[in-house]
Amino acid sequence: MDQSQIQQITDRISHKLESKGVSPDRQSITDKLASYINEFGVVAYEAERKVLSDQMRQYDIPEDDSSVTPPSVPEGGVYSLSEIQPGEWVTVEVKVVSLQTPTSPSIAQTGVLADSSGAVRFVVFAKASEIPPLELEQWYRIESAVVDSFREVPSLKLHSGSRVTPIADDRSLMPAPPMHLSDLTPGVAASIQVKFVEEWETRSDRMLQTGLVADTSGKMKFILWKDEGREKLTLGSVYNIFYASVDTFGGRLSLALNSGVWMEDEDTDIPVPVVMPVPKEDLPVTNIRDLSTGYASVRVKFVEEWESRSDRMMQSGLVGDETGRIKFVLWKDDTKEKLVPGQIYLIKNAKVDEYNGRLSLGLNSAEYSAADDGDDIAVQGIAPSAPLPVTSIRDLAVGFASLHVKFVEEWESRSERMLQTGLLGDETGRIKFVLWKDDTKEKLEPGRVYRVTNAKVDEYNGRLSLVLNNAVYEADEPDVDIAVGTALDAYAGTIVQISGGSGLVKRCPVEGCNRVLSRQNFCPIHEIQNDYHYDLRIKAVLDDGHKAYNVLIGRDVTEALTGMTMDQAIDLASESPLGLEEVQAQFTEKVCGRYVRCFGNDFEGRILVKSAEFIHPDPSATAELMNRAGASLGGEEQ
Q: Is the pTM of this model over 0.85?
């Protein structure tokens, strides 16, 4: 897609954001669109939707259903629910497995539909009066339904143009095999098998039960709202749960059970620990470094108080000892008193939770008192007294750091306590900063380059940010500039699989499409295309020993990794009896089993790689990964 077309999309996104009262970074939007569309072959509509969604989330703007107008979609046969994608108009044959009470007068009906491949939420709009109410446990053929996505959750929307026909023949519904919690994505979980491992105190009159369920892949929060006929789960029991909703909040997934059904499985156990109620006897004091989920007693110093982000929160911040620091939370409770900054406390039987891979202390279940033994605590992680060496944004970690950065974007302050906030950048990426009101601090000047010494690096919802109040910062001369790059995440591991659709591919030439064509030069939108153009890419699975990532590597990086240019790939495919498969086979030989460090961004579950390099790890570690994951061709061409 040429620059003028990308600029038109940038203008649409920018106007949408400006109508919400913010001033977006247009160049950043243009760069992301160009990367998605031209480098990785993402359809223009999907790229626009993704960038707009990311921008609205960045500025805390609620998304609406009309953010991007979906393109026209071709007629087709019956889709299985596992095949549908946002933006498509589809025909499906499904069973109504759950109905919920609509939360808006514009919605006539909502619930969950399922077939043997999966499940999806559905909405019938009130304006579609010609659609009769769908009945629970009934099968239907639904034609011309729109697949939409809101806050990363797919749904099927039935409107005045949709056609709904009951299916008379007797069909059985076999749910899909249980999925691991670690593999769930926002939407509906057709089937999971989990153990109820921890029950939490409910913090709403509408809530019947909440806590954690777990399987061998991890843990996940669940919520069960009060509903007639619903019964609580039993702590320690294993359940088969069908059609629970998977929501995302604060960057984490959680299960809403009201849309689902479940059965206790008395003959099965899952080897995960159950967190029992607060111990009746005081636990021995544990170092922060040695904490794990459950309950613990600690002797700590209150080192930092944070602004409360909820009306229900009395106090939060950091406590620490010689081995580390940990977040604590104290919810509003008339029987509790706030902690005093700088004071040392003995905290008995505090609840230790895990969130985004980090532990935190819940003090409402604990007893705490000021320690009167007179011994101070030298808390690990307090700001260093000597200047730290300069670190690039890409290499930052929680703690303290010095940087050489440019002030690239100023944001509107959303708190009376905030003096300034926005984005700083260097050649490796960008990062949010916050400067709280302080008579000794001055605002930064947009566009200027600064040397920042010993700034605090925090993490919130999986993203790093800088706090400048304890840092020293001074501007360079006005003529000093930095070419600011786009923030990239790093991934390192073994490429254990080269997937179908890798190598030399043909793309649809129709303006704004760019989809990969089938072997018969067929585009799913524009049918047969003989005037195609070539592209080079690698679709692969990268395994770091803890998690497997789907990665997509564009032409430039593919050429660098394989040593094969696109012209060479075209010649190879034309001369070999295997055609395009010969290119994929050679890519597999050159890349599969190699250890790679990639830099890129997540695009709806796939890492779009902007740069990559081979590295040389311990050979035994690579062999272990290859034996576990298997290096074989696989996957469907898309």
A: no
